[in-house]
Amino acid sequence: MRRVLLLLVSAFSVVSLSAQALELKPFTASYTADWKQLPISGTAERSLERLPDNRWQLNFEAAMLVASLTEVSTFRLENSSFLPLTYRFNRGGLGKSKKVEQDFDWTEKQVIGSDRGDSVRLPLNRGMQDKSTYQLELQFDVAAGKQSMSYQVVNGDEIETYDFRVLGPERVRTQAGLIDAIKVERVRDPTKSNRKTVLWFAKDWDYLLVRLHQVETDGKEYQIMLKDGQVDGKTVKGQKE
Question: I want to staple 89 with a disulfide (CB 3.0 to 4.6 A). Which of 96, 100, 163, 241 is the partner?
Answer without folding.
Answer: 100
